Prior knowledge:
The structure holds 3 protein chains of 3 kinds.
Chain A (H helix, E strand, L loop, with lengths): L1 H6 L5 H15 L4 E2 L5 E2 L4 H8 L1 H17 L4 H6 L4 H18 L5 H26 L6 H32 L12 H24 L1 H11 L2 H8 L16 H27 L4
Antiparallel strand pairs in A: 1-2
Chain B lengths: L5 E9 L5 E10 L4 E5 L6 H8 L6 E6 L2 E2 L5 H7 E4 L3 H4 L5 H5 L1 H6 L3 H14 L15 H13 L5 E5 L7 H13 L3 E5 L3 H7 L2 E6 L2 E6 L1 H8 L5 H7 L1
Parallel strand pairs in B: 3-8, 3-9, 6-7, 7-8
Antiparallel strand pairs in B: 1-2, 1-4, 4-5, 9-10
Helix pairs in contact in B: 6-7, 7-8
Chain C lengths: L1 H9 L10 H16 L5 H18 L4 H8 L3 H13 L3 H22 L4 H10 L4 H30 L10 H32 L16 H24 L1
Amino acid sequence: MARRAQRGFDDAKVPLLGVMGAFVFAAQMINFPVGIGTTGHLVGGALLAYTLGPSAAVVTMSAILAIQALVFQDGGILALGPNTINMAVLGVLAAYLPYHLWGSGRSRRLAIFAGGTLSVLVSAALALAELLISGVRISNPVLGVSLALFAASAVLEGAITVAVIEALEKIQPGFVRKPREGRSFALGAAGLAALLLATVGVLFASTSPDGIQRLGEQTGIASHARALLATPLAGYQAAFVHAGWPGKALAGVAGLTLIFGACLLIGRAIARRRSA
Amino acid sequence: MKQPLIEVRDLRFRYDDGAAALNGVSFRLEAGETVALLGPNGSGKTTFVLHLNGLLTGEGSIEVCGLPLDRRNVAAIRRKIGLVFQDSESQLFMPTVLEDAAFAPLQRGLSRHDALDRAMAALKTVGMEAAAARAPYHLSAGEKKRVAIAGILASDPEILALDEPTTFLDPPGQRDLAELLSALPQAKIVVTHNIPFAQALCSRAVFFQSGVIAAEGAVDEIVSRFGWDFALDRSRSRG
Amino acid sequence: MHHLVLERWSRGATFLHRRDPRAKIVALLVFLASLATAQRALSELAAALFLLLLGALLWARIPVWAALARAAIVLPFTLVFAVGCWISGDPARGAALAVKSYLSALAVIAMAATTPLPALLRGLELMRAPLFLLNVAQFLYRYLFVISEEAQHMGKAAASRGASVGGLGTGGRRFRAAAGALAVLFARSYGRAQEIHRAMLARGFTGRLQTLTPLRFRAADAAFLAAASLAPALVRIAIERIA
């Protein structure tokens, strides 16, 4: 008993994150009417970030994606593979940053809306970028339609997130976290700016399919990454290093490692803090 | 005089919003007894039970099996008194029945082998050993309740406290539960609105009202004193 | 009821079912890698790997048609991009995308259908995946259907009160009603999480979750791992040499 206490772990948060992950799963099925006959759905990264905090949200979203892939063989997840780091880590971060910066002022509602919108936009843009880098050629009209769809989903996510957060606050204000302020404002602003630039940059580059290729070539990734990212589920080479493929193996494992690394660090951080 | 299993003296508790939940409750439980906690909703029955193993902390003194309830003893006390909550779904939180039954022994530090033995023994006692590998989600309400009890029995407690155990159970299920409970040697506290169930199982009843115990006595005595049953024709003929 | 079917399949007792999940995970990764990085002789490779998977499914007595149908869930997503490639004048790449994603999904199904989720998570734990994440996934799966059912009940209750009736004009109200329903579901889920934590404390929770599922890597597992890892790799090398 004493030995265990010394280790300082506290898995008390596990049921909360697990159950709220199940909640998001179920919530993703609820229909939000958006006009004539169409319905939209919540993705949930922003909502989780504002209620559980960004680090817990990352772990929860990762668990959701893992279950979607392993149990439900979700097409989108399986097709993107380790690139789901977009949704789990970056999507949550993109959601939290506007809230962190402006969530306690008068533009709170706008900050929440922006967060929801960004989370989907960033995830979608990066997923698109990865597909383009891998050489999937997408003509401009198809690209235009895709981007329009992304934008629409993003705005929808923003709207749903705002509506649900406001409804939550009516039930119990304590459900929604207060954004922390202080010195980290500068860091947060820098992070947000970087994220925005990357997203916008990718979106612009993507309108000329060669743009991404050129970008890839310049950074030297392309020759390795192209073959590797050429298909869904590329990169699972953890246990298999073939002579002459170490570069590809490295690039591929990177995606998986990043997401696991993030979850590992966050898990430890959450677990080590004793619950109040 | 033999030491009571539970001795509560003047327990008081207020919620965060200031509302008084318990206004000086004193209570004793002797070995082998089965006591019914009756009373209106919100009178403090469940709140009282949550104090017995330290999930809530109020003012006053609580002794369980001779140990005063404080931070040092709470772990030992939680082995002595097992709580069976109203909603079994939240109580059976492990992926399989066997893992759930083994939760308490494992947390206590028993080896995997010993924990498994305890778990299987507890499951046998409640007649659910065949379901060991099943997921709790697929069990019926009655089966869930039995597995929840097994999870408590795995710690070898001296007292069982059950919060409205017949909720969600159909009459045959209620009968089975009563049979199971009467066969268990532990002393029991049963929070319930189910009078036939209380009459079948309990030797004594206490009646909660506004955070205090208003009366104690035999179950039938309490029921007729407070009109605590559903018999419409009886009350009509009483006039 | 996808998950129920998969759960049923995963409780079989064939040779493949009884193998250590770590061996199956590694075999899956090798398979996926062999498939993902392939560039040449794709149609032959795809056919050969498909036969490998088919053999595995048959050996594990998984209903083949049902498994093949389930793998097709991937297609709506990748077909969008495949069609995009086709329109852009590179149909070969589009076809490759579709075929690879289908086979990958089928491979994942083959593994998931022979490995119960708790065993799978335990295997990942022993392979050094972050335990916190796995525990969260375990709880998520445990309460997934409980909460989905609650959501469905709420939906039915709302519908029976006439909530689904309405034309264009009530769109905004319905939107806010849906948001309200989500908020209520959130509160209920949060409350349940607190109940669960309380139940854990009442049973002596020390703050650290313990695992019970023992895993023992046997000779049969090593043999399976070797065979299952070599098979797709050798197939690929052979085909590329012949083609």
